[in-house]
């Protein structure tokens, strides 16, 4: 996801994207992949399409074609891009069918057209994009009926279902950036049980754990989530919950944005150039109260929600100010997945059961983070909470492949982003669908990004002898 026009950044597309096999360098399938039930795939595709319609049917045609921000595509581009990728991968690649609209491949290739330029392209109209998407989906479901449990072709359907949900989260970010009255509504998230406050931090003992996953064990996993490998992690203390708004306000009040000693040198230069003084979408009223803009509405900043719309540089500066640091990706995953009693790494913090409303704030059900300490039933064995949902969490780790990484189904999916300055985010947000959120899922972005639904938690090394 691109973000700020004031810092020079490469014209890269959103991460986690699906590309064009004719134009990209496709690679061979992994040796083994577990099967996926076709009914599960059909349900995932349908859920994604409902979400797409909810995010686009609520606006008139002129708002769908408008460029709401140079950071984002027009919503109608996302709508047709979703359909084009579904045609490429499910009709042509999985189904062996002739192209419906080969003329659209170049137009909706995210690598060829930076977001800031897409509004000037000869895009399909909203009506044409909807018709194209419906036509592609009808044929995709015909192909799915013929799969007969073929694991590799089934994976392409899983990949496309995740791709559409990922664009749905991107479109939600566009809604956050658009001006005008709000058109999205959702109930408030659950609050923690009264009188129950978890500890400020939890100890994660030293020891090895299995990081990542193999396609034979999780057929929904994307290429950068594996292969599974053993990692030794020294003992550390981790925040039980993400950093809250009220805690972050203490950093602001103490002059955190005006003291270079807390900032990475590149972050300090960016902070001055972009004139950052608070999280994105925050401002003070005439009486000095912090307000935030959220989907077309101004409201007081809730003190007990996780801080949101924070760049990696801001998260890193806060952690230094607090005498702590950001966790590494391995530390985050061990805290989220490792069960010390069994030695297993679980799919989710709470186990292998799919997320529901008891476990995490996912799926755009609430359109805001839940208060810190919520979702006790979603806690990991480490005791940490809200590791999935609410806010993407920045880690200290730069994005690269795991030992033995093999690109699939094409190298541009994630390999081209390795070792290019991107930082890993983990855990998903309230805008992330459960189908694209698990303990192994890896997101990544440039450290200046703020329009994404990102926050963070901090950690510190344990004293020698602990764990």
Task: Break the fold down into its secondary structure elements and pairings.
Blueprint: H1 38-56, H2 61-65, H3 75-94, H4 126-145, H5 151-177, E1 201-204, E2 207-211, E3 229-233, E4 236-239, H6 245-253, H7 265-274, E5 282-284, E6 290-294, E7 297-300, H8 312-321, H9 329-337, E8 392-398, E9 423-426, E10 443-445, E11 454-455, E12 459-461
Parallel strand pairs: 8-11
Antiparallel strand pairs: 1-4, 2-3, 4-12, 5-6, 6-7, 8-9, 9-10
Helix pairs in contact: 1-5, 3-4, 3-5
What does this 3D model show about the protein?
The protein has helices spanning 38-56, 61-65, 75-94, 126-145, 151-177, 245-253, 265-274, 312-321, 329-337, and strands at 201-204, 207-211, 229-233, 236-239, 282-284, 290-294, 297-300, 392-398, 423-426, 443-445, 454-455, 459-461. The protein has 467 residues and is α+β, with helices and mostly antiparallel strands. It folds into 2 domains: 38-177, Four Helix Bundle (Hemerythrin (Met), subunit A), CATH 1.20.120; 201-245 and 305-461, Alpha-Beta Complex (paralog of FGE (formylglycine-generating enzyme)). A 4-stranded mixed sheet has the order 10-9-8-11. A hairpin with a 2-residue loop joins strand 6 (290-294) and strand 7 (297-300). Helix 1 packs parallel to helix 5 and helix 3 runs antiparallel to helix 5 (151-177). It is globular and about 60 Å long.
């Amino acid at each position: 996801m691109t973000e700020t026009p004031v810092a020079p950044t490469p014209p890269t597309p959103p991460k986690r994207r699906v590309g064009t096999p004719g134009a990209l360098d496709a690679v061979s399938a992994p040796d083994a992949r577990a099967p996926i039930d076709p009914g599960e795939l059909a349900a995932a595709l349908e859920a994604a399409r409902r979400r797409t319609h909810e995010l686009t049917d609520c606006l008139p045609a002129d708002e769908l074609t408008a460029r709401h921000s140079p950071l984002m595509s027009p919503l109608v581009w996302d709508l047709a891009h979703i359909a084009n990728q579904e045609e490429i991968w499910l009709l042509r690649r999985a189904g062996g069918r002739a192209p419906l609209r080969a003329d659209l491949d170049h137009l909706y290739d995210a690598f060829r057209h930076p977001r800031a330029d897409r509004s000037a392209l000869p895009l399909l109209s909203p009506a044409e994009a909807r018709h194209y998407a419906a036509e592609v989906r009808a044929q995709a479901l015909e192909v799915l009926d013929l799969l007969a449990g073929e694991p590799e072709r089934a994976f392409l359907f899983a990949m496309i279902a995740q791709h559409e949900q990922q664009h749905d989260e991107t479109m939600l970010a566009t809604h956050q950036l658009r001006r005008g009255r709000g058109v999205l509504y959702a109930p408030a998230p659950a609050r923690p049980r009264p009188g129950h406050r978890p500890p400020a931090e939890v100890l994660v003992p030293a020891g090895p754990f299995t990081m990542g996953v193999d396609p034979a064990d999780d057929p929904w996993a994307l290429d950068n989530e594996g292969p599974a490998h053993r990692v030794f992690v020294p003992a550390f203390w981790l925040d039980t919950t993400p950093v809250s708004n009220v805690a972050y306000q203490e950093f602001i009040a103490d002059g955190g944005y005006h003291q270079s000693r807390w900032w990475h040198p590149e972050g300090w230069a960016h902070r001055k150039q972009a004139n950052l003084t608070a999280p994105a979408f925050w401002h003070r009223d005439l009486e000095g109260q912090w307000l935030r803009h959220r989907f077309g509405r101004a409201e007081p900043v809730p003190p007990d929600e996780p801080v949101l719309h924070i760049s990696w540089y801001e998260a890193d500066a806060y952690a230094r100010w607090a005498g702590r640091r950001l966790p590494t990706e391995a530390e985050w995953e061990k805290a989220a997945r490792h069960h010390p009693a069994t030695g297993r790494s679980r799919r989710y913090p709470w186990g292998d059961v799919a997320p529901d409303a008891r476990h995490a704030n996912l799926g755009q059900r609430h359109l805001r983070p839940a208060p810190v300490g919520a979702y006790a039933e979603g806690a990991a064995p480490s005791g940490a909470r809200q590791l999935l949902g609410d806010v993407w969490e920045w880690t200290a780790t730069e994005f690269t492949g795991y030992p033995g990484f093999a690109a699939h189904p094409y190298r541009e999916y994630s390999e081209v982003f390795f070792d290019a300055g991107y930082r890993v985010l983990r855990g998903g947000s309230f805008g992330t669908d459960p189908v694209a959120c698990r303990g192994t899922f890896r997101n990544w972005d440039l450290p200046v990004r703020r329009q994404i639904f990102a926050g963070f938690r901090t950690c510190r090394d344990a004293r020698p002898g602990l764990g």
